[in-house]
Amino acid sequence: MEVKIQKTDNQVVAQFIGRLDTPASLEIAPQMEQLKEETGGTVILDCSELAYISSSGLRILLTLRKAAADKGGHVIIRSINDEIRSVFMMTGFLNLFEIQ
Fold it and tell me: Do residues 6 and 13 lie in contact, with contact meaning Cβ atoms separated by under 8 Å?
């Protein structure tokens, strides 16, 4: 699992590459802590290269959403594939996030 984070003046883009399962969630935890610090504005999670997401991965997304809400920011999830869209639909995440 790889996460590429790019910052601009008013937004942060995090690109998820690979499978966001339990081992990957632990592996990227330090990067997610850093990302939570940047949640005062717009955070875009680019999932165009995300192949799979587990409950641990969903927990990371919820944590980011809460951190953003606490700071007056918001999280946009971009480019999810059909499998991940199905998971989001079953778990109610489609209603929690702005999906582009």
Answer: yes
- Alpha carbon distance 36, 57 (integer Å): 15
Report H helices in 2-100: 22-27, 29-37, 55-70, 82-91, 93-96
Tens of pLDDT along 12-67?
999 999 999 999 999 999 999 989 988 888 999 999 999 999 999 999 999 999 99
If you count them, how many residues does the chain have? 100
Number of domains in the chain: 1
Axis-axis angle for helices 55-70, 29-37 (nearest 10):
20
Domain range for 83: 2-99
- The CATH number for 8's domain is 3.30.750.24
What pTM was estimated for this model as a whole? 0.92
